[in-house]
Write a structure and sequence with these properties.
Helix content: 25-40%
Largest sheet: 3 strands, mixed
Distance between the termini: 21 Å
Shape: flat
Length: about 150
């Protein structure tokens, strides 16, 4: 059975109310590419071929982008909601704000739904955990850590 890897991290922020406490943080073994994700979907016995799955997911992503650029959120039922987020620098006054100068980024965000009643979506109910401290050997831990450093979380 698959398990979610975690490591324990101490809060060293002396200004935090949680200073000195230990928290679990997820560790990723790898990050799948879009193509690898499609292969994974197909491996579950999908009646759709690679081209169809690729086309559907590509169109879905294109449509998400289009809708967010039109200031719309997209809710995927009990899964969660996709929405646009803006990063910006502060302006000295309302009349000093300049879009080109002060907006520094726009990104797509995802807010998971609270899925207490939906077992097919709830990771917490289905999850089993394994501490990186429990891993059988250093090679297994290094593989998880190097993947995490290369873009996994």
């Amino acid at each position: 059975m698959s398990k979610i890897l975690y490591k324990l991290v101490k809060n060293n922020n002396s200004k935090s109310a949680a200073y000195g406490k230990w928290y679990a943080r997820a560790v990723s073994k790898e990050t799948l590419t879009f193509r690898e994700f499609i292969e994974h979907v197909i491996s579950h016995g999908s009646v759709y071929d690679r081209g169809t799955v690729t086309g559907i997911l590509t169109q879905m992503l294109d449509c998400l982008k289009e809708l967010m650029l039109d200031s719309k959120k997209v809710k995927f039922g009990d899964f969660g909601t996709f929405y646009a987020s803006i990063r910006s620098k502060g302006a000295e006054g309302l009349d000093k704000f300049n879009v080109g100068e002060h907006i520094t980024g726009v990104c797509m965000r995802f807010l998971p739904a609270r899925s207490e009643g939906n077992d097919s979506i709830s990771l917490r109910r289905a999850a089993q955990f394994k501490s990186t401290a429990e891993m059988a050997n250093a090679e297994e831990l290094n593989a998880a850590s190097s993947s995490n450093a290369q873009g996994g979380k």
